[in-house]
Write a structure and sequence with these properties.
With 486 residues, the chain is α/β, with parallel strands linked by helices. It is built from 17 helices and 23 strands. Helix 9 runs parallel beside helix 10. Bound molecules: nicotinamide-adenine-dinucleotide (NAD).
Length: 486
């Protein structure tokens, strides 16, 4: 005995049982603040997906006929389990992802709110009708579950993003297969242990770990009726095309490049701390993170100088430690990618006002110091690509029109914000923005669980957005019955 325990190899959850994957390959899950391996994700196969879909299909007839109020009750139980384990789940999120504990707690809370909204299913699932559409003829519309549904998640919100889908799919009477990100599978592993205690019949919820092969098997499987995807734009596009090709309904949320516009009349004392959090919170690894800071007209110098001071004062370290503002990025590979963009910005001629590479950082783990580029122009790679790291790019604009033109020229359109004290400017901005999540004096325009979440253009493929009323549309089909009794 060496006393050193081996990292656990995770199992899939299929048909109500923890089941070893048929994977021949495994991916190391690391704590990015320490660089140590904490678990191994099995890279499951199409055969594992097929077993999960078969279990879900077996559960579907009984579950879809279960009264909505009983289905909702299982979600009330799940909600309470999540609440009881909030701190444990948040610590798990920080340990596998690296974000600060406060951010992790907030993300679990946001996930719980999705379960709470789903608990309203008996009301939200109601149809509608009209009597006497013709003499003695009545018409009703009822919502019915669509069948086996699947969701594929990204690495940046390990606990929250799967909860954008699972509770809504399940209360609507569907059965469900989840593939978490292979980089952060642990909070989902724990959530499925909690789901096991919620009186759900076997096969209603299933978990299959893995990567590309699992995603492709989900897209192609004839037994799956609906697919939800969250991740980068190239993979979102691919999943949308491949899964719709086999007749599924699909919502695929992609990457982002979010413009934060600061008007000369903005209250900078209030705006800069909010903007700083938007750019550097979660180490820039949010789909709603500020990415391009656009000071308008004479505000440029003041906005840049304050942003520089704010970036320099951030405390970087292990997200579990108190007082830390920013944790590591997800992996060594991603750190290299982010640092590559810092090099690229310098070679493209942008002015590096804060060089994160010069920052003294913890030795272990995948830390990147916060950087600020000034004098960025829209054609530069740092203004085009989603860096997904703590790199702010300042691209000044002459006026609001000029700022909006910059936004129009970018293919992504997820979220955007304006900071101003002018109602007129705010209204014009909200009306004309390409992004479909708009903040006014808000740094991260994240719709709550009862509103629709999702971008536009290359940030979203599909029509129905995530959570809110759209979830009940996505997870049900409408049956129209026309009756004559006379
Ligand atoms: P990713 O696209 O690399 O991975 C997402 C999922 O796709 C994972 O489950 C992964 O296993 C799978 N995948 C990866 N490569 C694949 C391939 N070649 N074929 C099939 N499947 C594949 O994204 P990520 O790095 O995990 O997450 C970060 C991205 O997610 C960012 O672009 C971010 O903006 C985006 N995101 C968007 C939203 C939104 O609401 N629009 C929310 C969160 C994250």
């Amino acid at each position: 005995m060496t006393g050193m325990s081996q990292p656990a190899v995770l199992e899939n959850f299929i048909g109500g049982r923890w089941t070893p994957s048929s994977a021949s390959q495994h991916l190391d899950v690391t704590n990015p603040a320490k660089g140590v391996v904490i678990a191994k994700t099995p890279m499951s196969t199409a055969g594992d997906v097929d077993a999960a879909v078969k279990a879900a299909a077996r559960a579907f007839p009984g579950w879809s006929e279960t009264p909505p109020v009983v289905r909702a009750r299982a979600m009330f139980t799940f909600r309470q389990k999540l609440e009881d384990h909030l701190e444990e789940l948040a610590r798990l999120v920080t340990t596998e992802h690296g974000k600060t504990l406060d951010e992790a707690r907030g993300s679990v809370r946001r996930g719980i709110e999705c379960v709470e909204v789903a608990c309203g299913a008996p009301s939200l699932l109601m149809g509608y009708g009209l009597e006497n559409i013709s003499t003695n003829v009545d018409c009703t519309v009822m919502r019915q579950a669509v069948g086996v549904c699947a969701a594929i998640a990204p690495f940046n919100f390990p606990a929250m993003v799967p909860l954008w889908f699972l509770p809504f799919a399940v209360v609507c009477g569907n059965t469900f297969v989840l593939k978490p990100s292979e980089q952060v599978p642990l909070s989902q592993q724990r959530m499925f242990q909690l789901l096991q205690e919620c009186d759900l019949p076997p096969g209603v919820v299933n978990l299959v770990h893995g990567g590309k092969d699992v995603v492709e098997a989900i897209c192609d499987h004839p037994g799956i009726r609906a697919v939800s995807f969250v991740g980068s734009t190239p993979i979102a596009r691919l999943v949308y095309q491949r899964a719709t090709h086999t007749g599924k309904r699909v919502q695929a949320l992609g990457g982002a490049k979010n413009f934060i516009v600061v008007m000369p009349d903005a209250d900078l004392d209030r705006a800069i701390p909010i903007i700083t959090e938007s750019f550097y919170g979660c180490a820039g690894e949010r789909c709603l993170a500020g990415s391009i800071l656009v000071p308008v007209g004479p505000s440029h110098k003041d906005v840049r100088d304050r942003m520089v001071a704010a970036a320099e004062s951030l405390v970087v370290g292990d997200g579990l430690e108190p007082g830390v503002d920013m944790g590591p990025v997800i992996s060594a590979r991603h750190r290299e990618k982010v640092l590559g963009y810092v090099e690229r910005g310098v070679s493209e001629g942008a002015k590096l006002a804060v060089d994160g590479r010069a920052r003294k950082l913890p030795q272990d783990g995948y830390f990147v110091g916060p950087s600020v580029f000034d004098q960025v122009t829209p054609s530069m790679a740092i203004a085009q690509d989603e860096i997904f790291g703590p790199v702010a790019t300042v691209a000044p604009a002459k006026d609001l029109d000029d700022a909006l033109k910059m936004m129009y020229a970018h293919p992504n359109a997820n979220a955007t914000s304006i900071f101003t004290s002018s109602g007129k400017a705010a209204r014009e901005f909200a009306h004309r923005a390409t992004a479909s999540m708009v903040g006014v004096n808000i740094g991260v325009a994240a719709p709550m669980a009862y509103f629709p979440f999702g971008g536009a253009r290359d940030s979203f493929f599909g029509d129905l957005k995530v959570h809110g009323r759209d979830a009940f549309e996505f997870y049900t089909d409408k049956k129209v019955t026309i009756s004559r009794w006379s």
